[in-house]
């Protein structure tokens, strides 16, 4: 909340226990002058074991209408869990984030979007990068105790250099 003071922050969450934890233990203690913070319940339909099915015909994450047309200048993808075959994986979250960034840039709602993906050393995340992040410009890598966090910058220049659908 301190880094996005007076801004809007949305947490997309699929686990009921975390939704309750955030609602009861975190949000009620936010200072009144902090940013707007919302918890958006979502449901993921893909699984790590079904990733090739997703990559062959990706679908957008189904989000509530209230946030469907929102634009985000910074996105952090650190969920859902994605290391076991029955976990949802981060394919839907990543695809939704990149497609939303492209839409917002092409509609001139944002000049640039930074998207950060955690655990990029894992096989699934490397495939996500190859399939969805190629239109961005690699901007930062941070190695940490809990995995590597990597960020890409998307803007009109990166999109137009790598696509023929932009002037």
Quick overview of this protein structure:
The protein is 32% helix and 24% strand.
Please give the radius of gyration in angstroms: 16 Å
Strand content: 15-25%
Shape: globular
Query: How far apart lie the N and C ends?
Result: 38 Å
The computed structural class is alpha/beta
> Would you list the SSEs in sequence order as H and E?
EHEHHEHEHEEH
Question: Percentage of helical residues?
Answer: 25-40%
Work out the number of β strands: 6
Mean of residue pLDDT values = 86
How many separate helices?
6
Strand order of the largest sheet: 3-4-6-5
Oligomer: single chain
Taking pLDDT < 50 over at least 5 consecutive residues as the criterion, the unreliable ranges are: none
Characterize the largest beta sheet: strand count, sense, and whether it forms a barrel.
4 strands, mixed
Can you walk through the features of this model?
32% of the residues lie in helices and 24% in strands. The protein is globular. α4 packs parallel to α5. β3, α4 and β4 form a beta-alpha-beta unit. The termini are far apart. With 167 residues, it is of the alpha/beta class. The mean pLDDT is 86. It has six helices and six strands, in the order βαβααβαβαββα. Strands 3-4-6-5 form a four-stranded mixed β-sheet. Strands 1-2 form a two-stranded parallel ribbon.
Layout: helices, strands, pairs:
Layout: E1 8-13, H1 16-26, E2 36-41, H2 51-56, H3 65-68, E3 74-77, H4 91-106, E4 112-118, H5 123-132, E5 137-144, E6 147-155, H6 156-162
Helix pairs in contact: 4-5
State the main characteristics.
167 residues; alpha/beta; four-stranded mixed sheet; two-stranded parallel ribbon; 6 helices; globular
């Amino acid at each position: 909340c301190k880094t996005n003071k007076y801004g809007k922050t949305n947490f997309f969450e699929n686990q009921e226990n975390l939704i309750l934890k955030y609602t009861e233990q975190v949000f009620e203690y936010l200072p009144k002058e902090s940013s707007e913070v919302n918890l958006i319940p979502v449901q993921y339909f893909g699984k790590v074991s079904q990733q090739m099915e997703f990559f062959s015909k990706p679908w957008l994450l189904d989000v509530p209408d209230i946030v469907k047309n929102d634009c985000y200048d910074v996105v952090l993808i650190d969920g859902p869990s994605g290391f076991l075959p029955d976990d949802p994986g981060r394919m839907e979250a990543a695809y939704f984030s990149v497609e939303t960034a492209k839409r917002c840039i092409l509609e001139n709602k944002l000049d640039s979007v930074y998207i950060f993906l955690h655990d990029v050393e894992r096989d699934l995340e490397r495939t996500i990068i190859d399939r969805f992040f190629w239109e961005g410009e690699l901007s930062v890598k941070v190695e940490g105790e809990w995995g590597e966090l990597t960020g890409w910058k998307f803007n009109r220049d990166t999109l137009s250099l790598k696509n023929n659908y932009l002037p």
